[in-house]
Structure formats: structure tokens, C-alpha cells
């Protein structure tokens, strides 16, 4: 596709490599980050232009992407970007946030003639670095059609799930499923070790059957080795599960396993593991003796 004028707001562990894929694809990329040093580092690596404010970054862009921290960050950064975005442009939010804030931002964008997509991602830092993220999108079909070729630069799959908020709701389903899987894997490894089994051999065998999962393939060995200084942090997972539990209270859903695992992650935080990988649920089990 022909090079476009793009902006990327938020250059954390996900945003930094995602924006890099856009630059390597030949687009003209302007970046903004609250901590300016991260934006300066990105420009040193990839070229492009550094903006000191969201307003400056978004003003000339055809498509603006953002990946920030939480609902309040989305409201602040998107609100500022929209003040300079032109009618007919598109704002894409990759933050994992609530469906409520997605709908709010969609309404604010529409009032200015700007398209909006809530587009949370799955695949972790490795997926961002390798350009293999899964992106679940909420919004209008015509807006999605304009943005999808851009998003494809750092995704293996981009799917429109429905109207505004649908991307965030789909990401909630993703996190609900992951929480239960990681806890089950932690319990299985702990059980194997307490039974005197070779845990690595156990995982090798059962990963060839019905118990196989992404978590088992990518996290079991490091869990057995008690290594958690990488990956998706417990603090972030608790934020996401809080969003899931709040949405369940709104829609009448019941999430007993998710609620329990959220409490277990709280115990990991109490152990000082807020920045450990989410697979550190095993460490909490081992701490019980």
C-alpha cells in the first residue's frame, strides 16, 4: 500500500515495536509518548518525527493509533488527539480498556467526523515484536476497511467483531480464558512435582494430547524453572481481570473462576510479584508449602 501519514501514541513494550513495523513498511510515522525519552529513542531507531503532545502528533495523520494504560489514559490521550484530527481520519485504540470507554470515545470521535475503532490486541510483547498480533476490533465496517491494511503490518489476524465496544468485549473473553488456563497449568505442574514426577516429561507427554495450550507450549518450561522476569505482568493482568469482572456485573454474567484467579494474582502482588509474568501463579502455590 502507498505510504500514509500515521501517528502512534504510546511507546511502551507493545507500542514501540508496533510503530516500528509501520515505519519499516514505508509509512511516514509521527510518535508521541508521555515520557519523551522513549519517543526520542524510537525516532533514533526508526526515523520519523517526534511530537511533544498528542495534539501535535495527530494533527496531520490519516490514521492515529494509540496504546496507553487504562480508561483514564484513553480518555485523556484520545480527547487531546481528537482536537486536531481532521474529518475523515481514523483513530484506533489498541489499549485494553472497558467497552464503556470505547463507546464514549466512539461518540466523541463521531461528533468530529472522525472514525474510531477499539482494537485491543493479543499475543504479548513477542507478538508485537514479530508482527504476529491478533487484533479484535469494534466499530463500523467502513472505518474498519480504511484502517485494516495499516493494522495488518503488525498482525497475523485482524477481525471486525461488531459495533463499538465489541473489540474490548472480545478481549475480555480472551483474558477470562487465559486466567483459567494459567491457573490450571500451575496446579498441574505443582501436583506433578509434589507427586515425584519429572514435570518436564509430564508436560512433554500431555502437550501432545487434549491438555495442550499456548500457555503450556510457551510457559511450562519457565514455570518449572521458576523464572518469571519477562512477559505480561501480573499488574496488567489484574487490571484486565478487573475490567472483565466489572463488565460481568453489568451484563449479569457469572465469572467464579476468573474471580478466584484474580484473588490469586492479588497474592502474587503481595509477594512482590506485580511485575512478574502471569505464569507466576505457580510461585504462589509453591509458597503454600
Q: Would you give an account of this structure?
A:
This protein has 289 residues and is of the alpha/beta class. The protein has two domains: 5-162, 3-Layer(aba) Sandwich (Rossmann fold), CATH 3.40.50.720; 169-286, N-(1-d-carboxylethyl)-l-norvaline Dehydrogenase, domain 2, CATH 1.10.1040.10. Helices cover 54% and strands 14% of the residues. It has helices at 15-24, 36-46, 54-58, 71-82, 99-111, 124-130, 141-151, 166-194, 199-206, 214-224, 234-251, 256-270, 281-286; strands at residues 5-9, 28-32, 49-50, 63-66, 90-93, 115-118, 121-122, 133-138, 155-162. The strands form two sheets. The protein has a six-stranded parallel β-sheet, with helices on both faces. It has a three-stranded mixed β-sheet with strand order 7-8-9. α8 crosses α11. The protein is globular. The N and C termini lie far apart (57 Å). The relative contact order is 0.09. The mean pLDDT is 97.
Biggest sheet: strands side by side, in what order? 3-2-1-4-5-6
* Overall pLDDT metric: 97
CATH architecture of the largest domain: 3-Layer(aba) Sandwich
- Number of discrete domains: 2
Determine and state the CATH class of the largest domain: Alpha Beta
Q: What percent strand?
A: 5-15%
N-to-C terminal Cα separation, in Å? 57 Å
Report the total helices.
13
**Helix proportion range:** 40-55%
Radius of gyration: 20 Å
The gross shape turns out to be globular
Could you state the CATH homologous superfamily of the largest domain?
A: NAD(P)-binding Rossmann-like Domain
Can you count the beta strands? 9
